[in-house]
Each structure stands twice: as C-alpha cells, then as structure tokens.
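ingest -> fold -> write
write: protein_1
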Amino acid sequence: MGGVPVFRQIADIVRIRIRSGEYPAGAVLPSGVSFGQEFGVSRTTIYRALMILSGEGLIEVIPSKGRVVTGGIPVLSYQYLRIIRDLTRQIRQGELCVGTRLPSEANLRRRYGVGRNTVRRALAVLEEDGWVWGSQGARRTVRRSL
C-alpha cells in the first residue's frame, strides 16, 4: 500500500474485520493500546484510524464502555435517548394521550434497566421539548402530541 498513510491502512484492516464478522455489531473493540501493540504504532495513529471508522458509522464511542461496533447501523449512545425515543413514539402513536400520566421514575428505571439519573435526564429533555409537564418528585403528564 505504498503512499497510503499507516492510519488509513489500519482503518482498512479493521473495516475488513468488521465486515467479515470478526468484530460483529455490538462488540467492543480492543483498546487503543492493544491495537497499538498489534500494529506496532502509537495510540495517536490508532485513534486517527478509529476516527475514520467512526465517521463512516461503523463504530461509536460509548462512555464507560469503549468503541462499539455498530456495523453501519446507527445506535443511540446514551440510554436516556432510548427512553426519549420510545416515549415520544408512544405519544405520537396515541398510546400515551394528552393528559395521561407517565409511568413513575421507578417503573421507567425497571423497564429500561437504567439508573435514576438516566430517567431524570430523559424526562428533563421531554419537559424542555414540551412533550410532558410536571417536576421531579411529581407524576409527569403528557402535554402535547403530534
């Protein structure tokens, strides 16, 4: 691959591994240090290669987890976004009508398998966007629908 920068060569190799299933969707990639040792290059070179793959939508950085293979399928990095997406879908489809109370924070935590702060963050965004009204400690109610 004469003339092709090393970080691009590494991106090509990792891309092939993703497409071949060696790194399937949902898999956490090896660390930058591990890749650096494998390819005999610095972490900076590895990070440049991984940025290419991230830009292509093949991998995504998930806090406290690492670089996760998406395989080109968009995923929500943060659990609170999953909650927002699901609740707004229910509101749009009429499963949750205007005036309907949302499930409690405890029920949402159990349903989505997340912590209290994650649920509260999702509810705060829904309130800011005008989907629901209420406050922490009070039952929130659907405010609008599309």
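write: protein_2
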Amino acid sequence: MSAASTEGTVAPATADLTAEQRQRDNVAIVAIPVAMLGLMIAIVAPLLVSLALRLTTLDATSSAANLSLVLGIGAFVAFVVNPIAGRLSDRTTSRLGQRKPWIFAGAVISYVGIVVIAFAPGVWAVVLGWSISQLGFNLALAPLVAMLPDQVSQGARGKVASLISLAQNGSAVIGTYFVQLFAIGLTQSLLPSLIGLVVLVLAVLPIKDVRRAEPPTDRLSIVSIFASFVFDPRKHPDLGWAWVARFCLITTQFTATSYLTYFVIDELGYSVAEAATKVFQGTLLNALGILLTTFFFGWLSDRTGRRKPFVLASAVVAALGLGIMATAGTLTVLLVAELVLGMGMGAFLAVDLALVSDVLPDDGQAGKDLGVINIAQALPQSLVPVVAPAVVAGVGYPGLFLGGAAFGVLGGLAVLMVRGVR
C-alpha cells in the first residue's frame, strides 16, 4: 500500500491480530455495512420505483423507453466516475483520511440529483438529475468499498462482506417500503433518499480512516486518469476472472430489477397505483432469500477458507431464480422467483466481495483496483437498458429473464478460473 500513517493501514492477513486491528474489525463489521445500507437506500428507492413512476407521470406512453434512456446515461456516468473516484481516494492526503472526504462529498452531490428529479419538468431534467445522482453515488461508493481491504483483516472479510451484501440487497426492501408509504409526489421522491444519506454519514463517522503520510510521488495526468479504467489481466489474471464473474452476475441481477415495475404493470396487470406495493412485496421476498443465505455463507467461507465453491453454487441459484421469473404469470410465482434470486445473489455478492479483496494486488491502489471491479457492476446498468427494449419486443419478458439466467451460469463458471483462492 502507498505510504500511510499508523492511523490506517491495510489489515493484516495473519491469524495473530493486534489489539488495534481487532478494534478495527469490530468497528468495521457494523459501520461499513450500515453505511452501505444508507447509501443503497438513497439510490435504490428511485432506481426501483420513483424514477419509473416519475417518468410515467411526465409521459405515460413513452415511459419505458425514457427509463432506458435515463438508466443508460446514468450508468455511463457511474462507469466513468467510479474508478476515478477510487483512484483519487487512493491519492488523497486530507486530515479526514483517504476515503471519508469523497464519501461525504458524494452524499451531498447525490441528493442534489434526487432533488432535481423531484422537480423535473420534463424527461431531459430527469436525465440530468439521475446523472448528478450517479456522479455523487459513485464518488461515495468507490471509497466506501475500498474501506473493506483498508480496515478488515483477511480472516474476517467474508463476514463483513456478507453483511455488506445483506445491506446492499436489503436496501431494496427498506427503500421501496419508504416509497410506498407516501403518495406519488415530492415526499415520495425526496424523503427515502435523504434518510439513507443521513444513515451513511453517521455510520462512516466512527471509522478510523486510512491517512497518507506523504503525497503520491507520481503526478496525476490524463494518462493516469485513463489508467483508472484498466488493469493488466495477464499480470493479474485472478482479478480479471473476478471481474468477469461479477459482470455476469450483476447482469443477472439488473435484468431482474430494472424492468420489474413495468413487468408488474404490463404482464401481471396491476395499475400504476398498485405497482409500488407489488414491487415492495417482491423485494421483501428477495430480501428474505438474502437473509437465509448471506451471513451463513460469508461465515462458512471464512470458516473453511474457501470462496469458489460458494460463489459457483450461489450463481447457479441466482440463475434458477431468473428462470422461475421467466415463467411468472402470477404474483405468487414472481414472489417465489424473487425469493430464489435473493438466496443466490445475496450469497454471491457476500463471498465474491471477499474473494475480490483476497486477490487484490498489494500495490497501494485498492481504491483504483476496486473501482475497476466496480465497472463490472456499473456496465450492466448501461447495457441492459439499451438491449432490454429490443429483447422484450422480440421475445417478451421471458426471453429477457432467461438471458439474465444464462449470464448467471457464465458468472459461476468464470470464478472457477480464479487460482489465487480455494
């Protein structure tokens, strides 16, 4: 890792931990997942419900196409910002630490975008607001994820990663719960995200952030900025395969969530007014599935010292959930599909994040390297909205969901190629 003071260094991978490191683990196991929960609530509430309903209010006939436009542009912003934010946080010499300044700034910027969406007079303003939100969200997300290898010893990463996964996925339930409490309007658009961002800031405050003792020796240049988007898979093949696995599984997840509101309306026959509650019920079952698997498999992964078998199994289960969703003609079948999908995705994201942390190069660029990994999380959010309308028009929602299931299987196979972990 790059030069850092004793106030923060990368957690040791040994079993014999110092008292300081044990304290870091104890703080991180609560603070990082709670911070992730708050951040995800802030962005998931509009992603799953508010955006679609706002666009329906502005232009009901073109709302699906407009949602693709908004999500696609926003995901491109995420694609660009996330790795750059990680690289900048690696280089930061603030007295607050490397990660906290970016997390706090990102929270403020993200909420500015939410406000723009709430008052948007047209689709173009929604595009602008969502882009601003994605800018702020990813300014905060990349440094927050980098806190896992910064703060947590290797033997506890599966446990903390499982809680992060639980927070990421459970946020959908809490976010949609808040949304459906309010009638369509400003309170529905503004309050859930505000609550989430307040939780984020309060959770991050007690973390003893990494601090650089000296500024980086290399200059920040256009070339180095572009280098934020890549790593050499020949030099770090395990990181490359981990990237592929995450890309495939996030494609699976986003295929299931991005058009869920429209699926409930178009295929299951519910009204716009009923859609928010039905989506909440689906995400509630999804969260139940996550609760059934996430923490257990994260703990078991730490206990056995193995990552790959759990990632493979969870990828197959997630793909099965999408397969069931493809056959859903009733709300009951959809809820079963959400339960199975949650069981798979929750376990995958828990163990996968620990696996990625284990294979990171020890080059002082954890933020940058995790930012590149996070491209695998952002890129499907750009591609799925572009491809989905044509897929739905050609083969319907079943074809869309089966395509997502196929990506899940491919993701499970990709993780078998990782050699640095068992």
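write: annotation protein_2
Residues 110 and 133 are 4 Å apart (CA to CA).
Residues 19-207+229-415 form a domain with the Growth Hormone; Chain: A; fold (CATH 1.20.1250.20).
pipeline exit 0
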